[in-house]
């Protein structure tokens, strides 16, 4: 049985639907990210779970108990916000102790727990500092320790790293995950940063306009995006329209060029239009031998970007759109320049979707998909 359940939750503000019938669950100790663009309802949903907001419909269940109408202070949840929200007139240690003071604990017990938590977040030496004597990253560590101090059953974090610079953000990601796993605490983590969600989570709920568009492991979300929206929001996805030339042999026409696609969806016939989804890293520069075969296509290089460990090439397929190609650094990529012609191959995973007759290239969510 899941530990935390969000069941068909809805929240409207005036005429606007902020959360539109969202359901998902988290097992005990699971780290679930709520990932979505600005305004998609992530914070509203988190505030409903925390008890700062009451839903218009639906339920929040924790440990089998319906807490939908329970006040926030009775839910035993810890929350960390984007802005550190520390008490400026209190030391780091006093900030961490804050949630413990209201409990009937001996002073020595409180001091012990505060030290333990400061140690856990890597601030063992800095308990006597005031917030303005700490860096942003350190302040956010204090906020995390403060949220964890009362031993909450659920930890809620709303974009806790977005105010920090890139390098600290990556460090703290790992720290938060380590601490969360050490404590085995059920966690909801709001972010609009796909890399953050992919790298930290057990599971991800992708939000779009107040709805949970897809729920899955990071690998599932990345490899099998359930909709156009998810495919575009998580990572880069090439979307190419082709027409089926010879169903039996898997030959499709991509612009003016034929390409072989191993497994087309069952329901396509000759003449149908299909959309091919392939990640930039799923496209490979064809070797000379492969280039002679019919499952490679020629593209025109438009831009070559150096991205550190890899190159990103933007290329044009004659009459069929733009293609992003990721290539590792130690390849021929360095030799390419805008204007060059290049042959590429499509590797797996590749998703091919039959396009409806109505408006090709838009709103084809929900039609049959096949994995090549
Ligand atoms: N108190 C409120 N009154 C009116 N509208 C609100 C209120 N809170 C949120 N909204 C609206 O509900 C929608 C969802 O907001 P929410 O803050 O949940 O989005 P979000 O996904 O957290 O976005 P961001 O990534 O920008 O933080 C937005 O359109 C927002 O304007
Ligand atoms: Mg928000």
What CATH calls the topology of the largest domain is Rossmann fold
Strand content: 25-35%
Give, in order, the helices and strands: EEEHEEEHHHEHEHEEHHEEEEEHEEEEEE
Low-confidence stretches: 358-372
Average pLDDT level: 89
The CATH superfamily of the largest domain is identified as P-loop containing nucleotide triphosphate hydrolases
Number of helices, where a helix is a run of at least 4 consecutive DSSP H or I residues = 9
The backbone outline, from C-alpha atoms, is: elongated
List keywords for this structure.
9 helices, single chain, OB fold (Dihydrolipoamide Acetyltransferase, E2P), elongated, six-stranded mixed beta sheet, six-stranded antiparallel beta sheet, 372 residues, binds magnesium ion, Rossmann fold, alpha+beta
Brief overview:
By secondary structure, the chain is an alpha+beta fold. It has helices at residues 42-50, 92-101, 107-120, 136-148, 166-183, 194-200, 218-223, 228-233, 288-291, and strands at residues 4-13, 16-26, 31-35, 57-62, 65-66, 77-80, 154-158, 186-191, 203-208, 211-216, 238-246, 251-254, 257-260, 273-278, 283-285, 296-306, 310-317, 321-328, 341-346, 350-354, 369-371. The chain is elongated and about 80 Å long.
């Amino acid at each position: 049985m899941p530990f935390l359940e969000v069941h068909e939750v809805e929240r409207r503000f005036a005429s606007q639907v902020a959360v539109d019938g969202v359901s998902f669950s988290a097992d005990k100790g699971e780290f679930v990210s709520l990932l979505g663009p600005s305004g998609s309802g992530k914070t509203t949903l988190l505030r409903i779970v925390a008890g700062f907001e009451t839903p218009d419909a639906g339920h929040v269940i924790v440990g089998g108990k319906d807490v939908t109408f329970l006040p926030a202070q009775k839910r035993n949840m810890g929350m960390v916000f984007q802005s550190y929200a520390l008490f400026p007139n209190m030391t780091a240690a006093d900030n961490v102790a804050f949630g413990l003071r209201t409990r009937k604990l001996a002073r020595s017990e409180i001091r012990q727990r505060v030290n333990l938590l400061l140690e856990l977040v890597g601030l063992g030496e800095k308990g006597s500092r005031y917030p303005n004597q700490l860096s942003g990253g350190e302040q956010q560590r204090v906020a995390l320790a403060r949220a964890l101090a009362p031993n909450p059953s659920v930890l809620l974090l709303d974009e806790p790293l977005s105010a920090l610079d890139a390098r600290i953000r990556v460090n703290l990601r790992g720290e938060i995950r380590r601490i969360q796993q050490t404590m085995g605490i059920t966690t909801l983590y709001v972010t609009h940063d796909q890399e953050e969600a992919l790298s930290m989570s057990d599971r991800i709920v992708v939000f779009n306009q107040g709805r949970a568009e897809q729920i899955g492991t990071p690998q599932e979300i990345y490899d099998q995006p359930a909709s156009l929206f998810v495919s575009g929001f998580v990572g880069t996805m090439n979307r190419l329209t082709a027409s089926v030339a010879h169903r039996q042999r898997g030959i499709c026409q991509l612009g003016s060029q034929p390409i072989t696609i191993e497994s087309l969806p069952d329901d396509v016939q000759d003449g149908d239009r299909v959309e091919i989804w392939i990640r930039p890293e799923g496209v490979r520069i064809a070797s000379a031998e492969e280039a002679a075969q019919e499952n490679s296509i020629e593209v025109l290089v438009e831009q070559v970007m150096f991205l550190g460990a890899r190159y990103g090439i933007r290329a044009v397929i004659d009459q069929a759109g733009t293609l992003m190609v990721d290539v590792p650094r130690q390849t021929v990529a360095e030799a390419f320049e805008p204007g060059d012609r290049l042959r590429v191959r499509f590797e797996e995973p590749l998703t091919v979707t039959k396009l409806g007759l109505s408006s090709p290239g838009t709103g084809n969510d929900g039609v049959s998909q096949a994995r090549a």
